[in-house]
Specification:
By secondary structure, the protein is of the alpha+beta class. About 40% of the residues lie in helices and about 15% in strands. It contains ten helices and eight strands. It has helices at about 25-30, 35-40, 40-50, 50-55, 65-80, 85-100, 100-105, 120-125, 185-200, 230-240, and strands at about 110-115, 130, 145-150, 150-160, 165-170, 200-205, 205-210, 220. The strands form two sheets. Strands 2-3-4-5-1-8 form a six-stranded mixed sheet. A two-stranded antiparallel ribbon has the order 6-7. The relative contact order is 0.16.
Length: about 240
């Protein structure tokens, strides 16, 4: 699936204010509905501003050249996050043991790792793993978790009680309990959800991905690095 960038939004000049406005797509028309609520409610007004944000998002690369260019851009973006050394070690080991690319990680691809739940069991014991709930795998009665990387969050769970670990990096993690501490989270996550609904793609920190839970998820075999004998040390080695 390829991302189809939207055309520029129409500019409405004062001289043409009374003329019937033409919309380049039904998506733009939706966001220009002249509803009183949309115009006067600060929350919805910020939520509707997602249109301008969509125009700036990066599509999933479709050629080897684009993939290489996006990889370099994402490497720069990650450096600018100024992650801790433990966070960088976690991500480096994650990439090494699952074989995923930086593009798939940071553009939010849905990843399933055939590991019999090993990564879930390991990550969920980390003190940085926060209980989460999401719309993913609702039929699985198992706690999901999120690990923050600055404003972004690695959401993870299992495909079944005895299944594989799945994860995806979200542009903005969300839990209703967090709204009390940061009300803007509802707006940011709402914008991401609208982008997903508009494009049918996951929304990662640095772009879109067509690899969703229900549409061509990426499946990888878990290939562990040299195991540490002490399990407690192995957990802390992943992320303290």
């Amino acid at each position: 699936m390829q991302h189809r960038p939207q055309r520029q939004l129409p500019h409405r000049s004062a001289s043409a204010s009374k003329a019937k406005q033409r919309y380049p797509s039904h998506h733009d028309k939706f966001f220009h509905l002249p509803t009183t609520i949309a115009l006067n409610d600060p929350f919805l007004r910020r939520l509707y501003s997602v249109v301008s944000l969509v125009l700036d998002d990066h599509p999933y690369p479709s050629t080897r050249e684009e993939f290489s260019r996006r990889t370099h851009e994402i490497e720069r973006n990650v450096r600018e996050l100024h992650l801790t050394s433990n966070q960088m070690k976690f991500l480096q080991r994650l990439v090494a043991e699952t074989g995923i690319t930086l593009v798939d990680l940071w553009q939010g691809s849905h990843i399933i790792v055939r590991d019999n739940g090993f990564l879930y069991d390991t990550w969920s014991h980390s003190p940085t793993a926060l209980p989460r709930f999401s719309s993913h795998y609702r039929q699985v009665p198992l706690q999901q978790y999120g690990i923050y990387f600055r404003d972004h969050q690695l959401l993870f769970g299992k495909t079944a009680l005895d299944g594989s670990t799945w994860f995806q990096m979200e542009a903005h993690g969300f839990d209703p309990n967090d709204i009390y501490n940061d009300p803007d989270l509802a707006v940011y996550h709402g914008q991401d959800f609208l982008k997903y609904r508009l494009h049918g793609m996951n929304v990662g920190p640095f772009g879109f991905s067509p690899h969703t839970e229900t549409m061509s998820p990426i499946i990888r075999q878990y290939k562990p690095m040299k195991l540490v004998q002490n399990r407690k040390h192995r957990v802390s080695h992943y992320l303290q």
